[in-house]
Amino acid sequence: MKIERVKAGLSIKRSVDAGTEDQQKTVRAIIEDVRKNGDSALFAYTEKFDGAKLYSLKVTQEEINEAYETLDDVMIKIIREAADNIASFHAKQKRETWLYSDEDGSILGQKMTPLDSAGVYVPGGTAAYPSSVLMNVMPAKTAGVDRIVMVSPPGSDGRLPAGVLVAADIAGVKDIFKVGGAQAVAALAYGTESIQAVDKITGPGNIFVALAKREVFGDVDIDMIAGPSEIAVLADETASAKEVAADMLSQAEHDRRASAVLVTTSETLAQSVAREIEEQLLSLPRSEMARASIDDYGAIYVAETINEAVETINELAPEHLEILTENALELVKDIKHAGAIFVGRYSSEPVGDYFAGPNHVLPTNGTARFSGPLSVDDFMKKSSIIMYSKQAFDKHGAKIAAFARLEGLEAHARAIEARNE
C-alpha cells in the first residue's frame, strides 16, 4: 500500500455510485412493472435474476423449521444472545411522549408514535447476512412497529440461507418473502397480492436496490442510501500492526469498492501495517475481493501529531472508526464525525457488526457529518401537542393575528379573531 503524509484538504477516495442512465431506466421499468402486474412480475424477475422458479413467495413455517435443523445449536444460541444484546441497547434509545403545562394553563408537548409497518431488505449474493436481519428488525420491534415484512433474494434452489431465516424467526418476523432486487423494493413500497405495502424500507443492497429506494422515497420513507463499507483506524506506535491490518481487511473483504484507511502518527507502524496486509491477503478466502478494495480504495496516512491525525479523521467522517492509541478513550471527545467509534484493541469492528448491541447500519460516503446509525427513532414519528388556555389565547391572540397579516394570510388572522367575537 502507498504511504502518504497527511495534508490539508485530504479527502478519502470513495466509491460513490449514482448508477448509470441504463441502470436508472431499468429500475424505473421494474418498479412500474411490479406496480402494474404484482406477484406475476415478482415471479418473473426472481426467475430471471436469481435463477429460482417459485410458485409461492412467502417463506413457510416448514422452511423455518428446516433452517433450525440445519444450523448448529451453538450458532443458534449465539444469534439469540446477539439479538438480546441489540434489543437491550436499543431499548435505552426509546423516547416517551411528554407534556408540560405553563403557568397560564396551556399544555404543550410531543407525542411519540411507532410506524404502523416497516419493510426490511436483507441482501443476498456473495454472502448471507443474519446480522443485517437483527440490526434492522430489533430497533423496529423496540419502537413498537406492529407489522414488519422482510424480503431477501433466494438462491437458485428457491431457499433463503438458514442463518437468515433463524435470525428472522428469533427477531419475531412473521412475514418473510423470497424476493430481492429493485422488484422487492417496489413490492414493499406499493404492495402486491402477496406483499402488503409498508411505511418505511430499511436495509442495504446492491446498486439496483439503492436506486429503487431512491426512486420510491416520498411514497414511503427509507433509512439511507448506503454506499460500500468503510473503516478508518486511528493509531499510534502502541498499536499492533497485525491487528490493524486484520481490522482493515475485515472491511475490505466486504466489497471491492470498500474503503480501509489507516491514519497514524508512527511511520514504523505504517510500514509494518503495509507489510502485514500483503502477508494476510495471501491466506484470506476472499482475497480477490479484499485485494481490489485495498488497491483501489485503501490508504495509509502518516500525521505529525495526534491532533493532526484527529483532524484528518474528522475530515474523512468514516462509517467505522477504530481508535488504537495509548489513551484511546480520551480521544473520543475530539471525534466529531464517525458513524460508530470502536475504542481500544478489544473493540475490533466486528464486535459491533455482530454482537455488542449498537447498530451496524451506519452512514457512509462522509454522511456521518450529518447523520448517525439506524435507531429506534427511525421507526417512530413525533406529533406536536398544542392546547392553549383561554388566558394564553387572550394574551397572545392579537400578536398571532398580526403575524398572520405580516405574511398576507388574512384567513389565518380571522381564524384567531373569530374566537374573540
From TrEMBL:
<feature type="binding site">
    <location>
        <position position="229"/>
    </location>
    <ligand>
        <name>substrate</name>
    </ligand>
</feature>
<feature type="active site" description="Proton acceptor">
    <location>
        <position position="320"/>
    </location>
</feature>
<dbReference type="InterPro" id="IPR001692">
    <property type="entry name" value="Histidinol_DH_CS"/>
</dbReference>
<comment type="pathway">
    <text>Amino-acid biosynthesis; L-histidine biosynthesis; L-histidine from 5-phospho-alpha-D-ribose 1-diphosphate: step 9/9.</text>
</comment>
<feature type="binding site">
    <location>
        <position position="412"/>
    </location>
    <ligand>
        <name>Zn(2+)</name>
    </ligand>
</feature>
<dbReference type="GO" id="GO:0000105">
    <property type="term" value="P:L-histidine biosynthetic process"/>
</dbReference>
<keyword id="KW-0862">Zinc</keyword>
<feature type="binding site">
    <location>
        <position position="251"/>
    </location>
    <ligand>
        <name>Zn(2+)</name>
    </ligand>
</feature>
<keyword id="KW-0479">Metal-binding</keyword>
<feature type="binding site">
    <location>
        <position position="121"/>
    </location>
    <ligand>
        <name>NAD(+)</name>
    </ligand>
</feature>
<keyword id="KW-0368">Histidine biosynthesis</keyword>
<dbReference type="GO" id="GO:0008270">
    <property type="term" value="F:zinc ion binding"/>
</dbReference>
<comment type="function">
    <text>Catalyzes the sequential NAD-dependent oxidations of L-histidinol to L-histidinaldehyde and then to L-histidine.</text>
</comment>
<feature type="binding site">
    <location>
        <position position="251"/>
    </location>
    <ligand>
        <name>substrate</name>
    </ligand>
</feature>
<keyword id="KW-0028">Amino-acid biosynthesis</keyword>
<feature type="binding site">
    <location>
        <position position="412"/>
    </location>
    <ligand>
        <name>substrate</name>
    </ligand>
</feature>
<protein>
    <recommendedName>
        <fullName>Histidinol dehydrogenase</fullName>
        <ecNumber>1.1.1.23</ecNumber>
    </recommendedName>
</protein>
<dbReference type="GO" id="GO:0004399">
    <property type="term" value="F:histidinol dehydrogenase activity"/>
</dbReference>
<dbReference type="InterPro" id="IPR012131">
    <property type="entry name" value="Hstdl_DH"/>
</dbReference>
<keyword id="KW-0560">Oxidoreductase</keyword>
<feature type="binding site">
    <location>
        <position position="407"/>
    </location>
    <ligand>
        <name>substrate</name>
    </ligand>
</feature>
<keyword id="KW-0520">NAD</keyword>
<feature type="binding site">
    <location>
        <position position="254"/>
    </location>
    <ligand>
        <name>substrate</name>
    </ligand>
</feature>
<dbReference type="GO" id="GO:0005829">
    <property type="term" value="C:cytosol"/>
</dbReference>
<feature type="binding site">
    <location>
        <position position="320"/>
    </location>
    <ligand>
        <name>substrate</name>
    </ligand>
</feature>
<feature type="binding site">
    <location>
        <position position="353"/>
    </location>
    <ligand>
        <name>Zn(2+)</name>
    </ligand>
</feature>
<feature type="binding site">
    <location>
        <position position="206"/>
    </location>
    <ligand>
        <name>NAD(+)</name>
    </ligand>
</feature>
<feature type="active site" description="Proton acceptor">
    <location>
        <position position="319"/>
    </location>
</feature>
<dbReference type="InterPro" id="IPR022695">
    <property type="entry name" value="Histidinol_DH_monofunct"/>
</dbReference>
<dbReference type="GO" id="GO:0051287">
    <property type="term" value="F:NAD binding"/>
</dbReference>
<dbReference type="Pfam" id="PF00815">
    <property type="entry name" value="Histidinol_dh"/>
</dbReference>
<dbReference type="InterPro" id="IPR016161">
    <property type="entry name" value="Ald_DH/histidinol_DH"/>
</dbReference>
<feature type="binding site">
    <location>
        <position position="183"/>
    </location>
    <ligand>
        <name>NAD(+)</name>
    </ligand>
</feature>
<comment type="similarity">
    <text>Belongs to the histidinol dehydrogenase family.</text>
</comment>
<feature type="binding site">
    <location>
        <position position="254"/>
    </location>
    <ligand>
        <name>Zn(2+)</name>
    </ligand>
</feature>
<feature type="binding site">
    <location>
        <position position="353"/>
    </location>
    <ligand>
        <name>substrate</name>
    </ligand>
</feature>
